[in-house]
Amino acid sequence: MEHTKNLLLQVMIILIPVFFYSMYLTNRHQFIETKRQKLIFSFLATITLVLCMSFPIYSDINERNDLRFVALMIGIFYGGGYATGIVLTIILLLYRWYFGGAGFYSTAYEVLFFLPMFFLAYPRFIQQDRAGRMKLTWMITSGMSLIYILVDFKMDFFNQTLQEILTICVATIVTVSLIETLRENAQLHMEAQQAEKYKILGESPVPLLMKFEIPCRPIEDFSSYFYNRQFQRRIKGMFKFV
Q1: Which residues belong to any copy of the Signal transduction histidine kinase 5TM receptor LytS transmembrane region domain (predicted)?
Q2: Cα–Cα distance between 237 and 70 in angstroms, integer?
C-alpha cells in the first residue's frame, strides 16, 4: 500500500510543470515558444527532478527508485534542449551522490543510456506535430522500460519493478499528452485572435468610406456641372462678349 501511495505521489510531482505551464498559457495565450518560456519550463523541470528524488518510490541504503528520468526527458523536450539536459543531468548526479550508496553507480549507468537517447530524439521531437510526438513518446518509453529491465531488474522485487515501469510509461505519456493539448489549445486561441483582428481590419474601410461619401458629393456635382454643355456655351459666350 505504501508503495502504491509513493507511485501516485511521483505521478503528481511529474504533473507539477504541466499545472504551472497551463497557468502560464492561460494567462498569456502564447503559443510561440520564447527563451523566457523555455527558461520557466526548465526551472519547473528542475524543481520536479529534485522533488522526485527527494520523495522516492522506494529507498534503502544503496537504492532509490523514482521518476527522475521522466522529469529529465520533459525538461529536455520542452525546456530548451541540450543545454537544459546537461544542467539537469549534473543536478541529478550531484543530488544522487549526496544521498550516497552504491545506487549512484547504477544511476550513472542509466544516464549513459538515457541521455544519448533523449538527445538523439530531441531534434526529431521538435519537428513533429502532436501525433508524431505521441508516437515518438511511445518509442522512448519502450526504450526506457527496456533499459530499466536491463539495469535494475531483480527477481526478488519483480512486482515492484513492473509497477515502476508501468508508472514510468503512464506518467510520460500522460504528461506529454497534456502538454501537447495545452499547446494546441493555446495555438487555436491565438489563431482565433488573429482571425478576429483580420475581420476587424476587413470591415473597417466600410464606415470610413461612408464618412467620406457626403463631403465628396458637392465636388462630384460641381465637376459634373462643369462638364455640362450648357455651361460650356455660357463660358464661350462670355469670352466672345469680352
Answers
A1: 33-178
A2: 98
